[in-house]
Write the structure tokens for this entry.
Amino acid sequence: MIEKLIAWSTHNRFFVVLGTAIAIVWSVAALRSTPLDAIPDLSDAQVIILTEWSGRSPDLMEDQVTYPIVSSMIAAPKTKVVRGYSFFGLSFVYIIFEDGTDIYWARSRTLEYLSKISGSLPPGVHPALGPDATGVGWVFEYALVDESGEHDLSELRSFQDWYLRYGLESVPGVAEVASVGGFVKQYQVSVDPDALLAYKIPIKHVIMAIQRSNNDVGGRVIELAETEYMVRGRGYIRSLEDIENVAIGVNSKTGTPVLVRDVASVGFGPDIRRGAAELDGKGEVVGGVVVMRYGENALNVIDRVKEKIEEIRPSLPKGVELVTTYDRSDLIKRSIKTLRQKLTEEMLVVSLVIILFLWHFRSALIPIITLPIAALFSFIPLAGMGLTSNIMSLGGIAIAMGAMVDASIVLVENAHKRLERWEAGGRKGSAQEVLVQSTQEVGRPIFFSLLVIAVSFMPVFALEGQAGRLFKPLAFTKNFSMFFAAVLAITLVPVLLQWFLKPGTKKIPKEENHPISRALFRIY
């Protein structure tokens, strides 16, 4: 079968070259569409459930929130591990699914099982899913710095939370923009317990009155002179005075209303915080963390975020600067550049060795041409499987280089020997048939030897968990490169042999006339 394929390729060079050209175009398109990252994503298929219940102790969160959610999620399909963590006012439940589970299928099942227990949770408790991202989704970070002193940390945090964050979350591929540092601005009502006691008003009346006063209500429609007028009550709180003037009861002695300002002081203040963000030891700042959506191209997402930041930059408050504090694109580009440089060096060294030992430049072009083509073809299945191009996947190509070049070298060397014999025998027969026979002679063992070398990495696919996610991309690209090198050895290489080893041109030097070969023969 292989011998027939070699003969067919030799006599149908146009179709072989055409197929190779189409595959090269396909490979370039796959290479451009393959997501770029510095390292492979080692994260599990994970869904996070976050629940807030302000002011509750960890043991209460555990009993009434975390435990019901964990016990329900254990029954979800393809669930591998369910972990629950309870903190003061917070509950986190991590659901880890089996390897290969689609993240959005997992999120749908989580919502389905979460809806079953929504009625059994305490009133006012509403669990929410975390962003559709992974542990390596943290791709970009920035800080808002005001060296002029015109804006305090609460104003910077308000700008971050109510303007900048939403602008960046609209960027395609961004799952979340988390705010860090600063102070969350609040309307704070500091109640005087003595005043409440004097007016005999419980504190819950103060809370209910403020809640009810912060609301718009609708009325009916009044028709006057064939015109409809909609009646509504506008009651949203817009200033501190609005809170101070909220009525919370009646003075039993005078019959006058009791207002919030009679029993409490109202002002702006920061929410309780448990951390801070500092930049370069110069003081506190407000920052944001851009989290990439699952399966996105990290480099493209970062570029889009930078473009959006440049659009927003002119609208920053006066004196405020947006400083980039973490940018993974630099790491990605330097990683890919280093690996590309090493691959180029490896190909140059291989080419130099081939030229030195074959002592025939046109013959050396055959492995020099097929080597990058085989490496390029490996990106077709790589893109089809959704794998990223990173230091591990590209490292598989580097590992395969040494074995990939062997096929072309053996074919060229054997063609040299057969042509020497053909020249010595008086050129009996056609040179084309001599080259076909030389290729057929070693084509079958070369093809299967490359496949055997590729199979040697098959145990890597038995790895599971993070080890599998780390080394499988390397094994995939290494095996893909070896496979395509084997295919090119019995299709494209015979065609190149016909072109570059034509009789009548400069004769191929005999092995005994090669200076390096003569030196090696003497040593032997």
The mean pLDDT is 84.
